[in-house]
Amino acid sequence: MQDIIQDIIDSAELLCQRNWAERNAGNISYNISENISFSQLKEFEHEELSLSCNYEYLKNTAFFITATGSKMRDLKRDAADGIVIVAFAEETDKCYIFSFSGQSKKPSSELPSHLLIHNFLIKNKSSYKAILHTHSTELIAFSHSPEIRTKDRLNDILFRIHPELSVLIPKGFGFVPYQITGSVALAEATLTELARHDCVIWEKHGCLAVAEKVVDCFDSIDILTKAVGIYLMCKSAGYTPTGLSDSQLAELKSIFNIESISGSSQLNNINSIIELIDKSNDIIILTHINVDGDAIGSSLAVKEYCKAKGKDANIFIDGEVSENFNFINSIQSLAAFDQEKHTGCLKKADLIVILDLNDSSRLGEIENAFLSSNAKKIVIDHHLEPKIKADLYLIDSKSSSTAELVWSLIKSDSKIQISEEIANHLYFGIMSDTGNFVFNNTSSSTFLAASELVCYGAKPNFLYNSYYNSVPARQIKLFGKALSEIKFYLNEQLCILVLNKKMFEETNTSLSDTDNFVEKLMTIKNIKIAIQITAIDDKELKLSFRSKEGINIREIAVKYGGGGHSQAAGARVKNVQLLEFIEKLVLDCENLNLEGAA
After folding, report:
1. In terms of domains, do 100 and 169 share one?
2. pLDDT digits (tens, 9 = 90+) for 135-159
3. Eight-class DSSP state of 290
4. What's the per-residue H, E or C state across 307-341?
5. First vs last Cα of the chain: how many Å apart?
6. What pLDDT is stored for residue 63 in this prediction?
7. Residue 27's beta-bridge partner residues?
8. How many domains does the chain contain in total?
9. What is the dihedral of CA 163, 168, 172, 173, to 10 degrees?
10. pLDDT (mean) for 167-194
11. 478: which of 32, 112, 147, 492 lies 20 to 30 Å off by Cα?
12. DSSP-derived pairing of the beta strands 563-564 and 568-574
């Protein structure tokens, strides 16, 4: 423990030397769970603190964190006066605060952010235990520049300015547009960036880094600040720095074996993904629970792509595939994951490709095997805020579907011949995720992709009729029962459809029979928000949200632990009273700007 305390003291002194610690600016936390636990501390005086979130991976953990009002200059003199211990027992929606300075202290107001990040690090089995947030003067000044409104632009500037940067910090830096200090929005946006980076710049605010020790966090921010300082010196001297050329960056990448520089374009990401697949032999493809058309089409297309490259690839899913998809060629390739049979497959794999999900919890029963695998990992997805640690990413939230992104990958590989089967799988994925090209996620690039796939043999008429015009009678009966009890709110601009256990029993149906129900609700005149509440069991509800353009329904999904897109999102809740929960949802929707919607 003394080594940890000394690390915090040394880092506080460095922050003061750099003038990054004005008044009570910045905060530090450190995971000390290997050194102490609540059971060892509980005899000491403490306060119980209820939390607004359930941090499921923080059971029986403990952390040092700077106290509210503590100053770095005081911390370097007396750590006990500026640090508290936050400990968890079995329950993870409350913690216990211990202070050892002789007076009661509270943890930093940034506690929720620190806990959220530690929860993420533990979940992903990271070796990182330290978090440092500080106010680097140069970084704050740099973030005000109109030249850096995107992360790619920021990384491109900095990697070209200082050659050491791409060697020491090859993953590059995250960037979060301005958010209110201490807000949930800031914490979630930071978590998204930490899935790919160890250091994140907060626009007009400062920087946050994670590492094994606090001083390592400081070093990351320090080298970043050095590059920014060089850039600002050149600009203040009246000229724009030329920076390293593309060929010089490529030479660095080659000499130091840097797989990917974060600031690279999507095309470079595609090329890196193709190279990694070429190097791999045992490939696993995973997608989300309750597979939909995009997940199925993308997974089967990637499997066929690997096959065309002479690679073995297996697809695993949690659960069964709805019979609605039985018309798809090779649908039997999606194997239901069995813990005993298949965990070893993920252990010996050298590459895992994750498709159409942004959080490993969406893998269901496969999550633990995925997190413990040492395989290289690729994420291809079109959802906001990816929270999966991977080696390479192909992510675009503006893409209509994951299938459209997979198409951009496959068509870039000149070494393979694109088969009719690949074309059909990807066309179906795009078609199903765009509601046959009518949802507002459909763009000109979506139509272009569909056109290209038809040229390679995709059959639009067959796919449309097989999916949209082949609904089993029992699903219509289920939908009819639910429709008979549909409720309207907010001047009939909001409708809520509830599917309960009794309805499923009476129609001999299951969760997989509810595909597209919520989309059908959006065809009702004047409806701007549609919500489908489906009973998973006696304790859990599945929520599906849809909205018209101009209404960000995702805000409500995120509030209840879910996510998705602005007009299509989802979440799951447990242990709620249905009628009371519906009242909350109506109030949530009322707080959105329904009048401004299309």
Report:
1. no
2. 999 999 999 987 776 777 788 888 8
3. S
4. HHCCCEEEEEECCCCCHHHCCCCCHHHEEECCHHH
5. 58
6. 97
7. 133
8. 4
9. -110
10. 84
11. 492
12. antiparallel
Q: Are 464 and 324 members of one domain?
A: yes
Both 312 and 430 in one domain: the answer is yes
Instruction: For residue range 524-582, list pLDDT tens digits in order.
Output: 999 999 999 999 888 899 999 999 988 989 889 988 988 888 888 999 999 999 999 99
Element (H, E) at 545: strand 540-547
Contact call for residues 562 and 543 (beta carbons, < 8 A): yes
Dihedral sign of CA atoms 50, 55, 57, 62 in order: negative
What's the rounded Cα separation, in Å, for the pair 8 and 16? 12
CATH code of the domain covering residue 355: 3.90.1640.10
110 is catalytic: yes
Domain end position, chosen among 88, 105, 135: 135
Q: Which of 135, 167, 182 is the last residue of a domain?
A: 135
Give the tokens for residue 359.
Answer: 């959080």
CA 379/CA 388 separation, integer angstroms? 8
Q: Which domain holds residue 74?
A: 1-135
- The pair of structure tokens assigned to 362 is 């969406």
Q: What are phi and psi of 67, to 5 degrees?
A: -85, 155
Q: Say what the pTM is.
A: 0.64
Tokens of 157: 């500037």
Question: Is the pLDDT at 469 greater than 50, yes or no?
Answer: yes
**Tens digits of residue pLDDT in 295-338:** 999 999 999 999 999 999 999 999 889 888 999 989 999 999 99
The closest of 488, 555, 473, 564 to 527, measured between CA atoms, is 488
Q: At what angle do helices 420-433 and 402-410 cross, to 10 degrees?
A: 150
454 with 559, same domain? no
The pLDDT of residue 596 is: 58
| 173, 306: one domain | no
- DSSP letter string, 72-121: HHHHTT-HHHHEEEEE--S-SSEEEEEE-SSS---B-TTHHHHHHHHHHH
Residue (of 405, 407, 400) closest to 453 by Cα position: 407
- Is residue 277 located within the same domain as residue 398? yes
How far is residue 486's CA from residue 394's CA, in Å, rounded to a whole number? Answer: 40
- Asked whether residue 238 falls in the same domain as residue 211, the answer is yes
E-assigned strand segments in 399-528: 487-489, 494-499
SS3 letters across 135-193? CCHHHHHHHCCCCCCCHHHHHHHHHHHCHHHHHHCCCCCEEECCCCCCCHHHHHHHHHH
Interatomic CA distance for residues 266 and 168, integer angstroms: 22
Report the C-alpha gap between 333 and 116 in whole angstroms: 37
Residue 121 belongs to domain with CATH number: 3.40.225.10
Q: Extract long-range pairs of 276-280: CB within 8 Å, 24+ residues apart.
A: 276/351, 276/376, 276/378, 276/391, 276/392, 277/305, 277/306, 277/309, 277/311, 277/351, 277/378, 278/309, 280/311, 280/350, 280/351, 280/376
Position of tokens 């049979």? 341
Pairing of strands 540-547, 487-489: unpaired
Token reading at 288: 């989300």
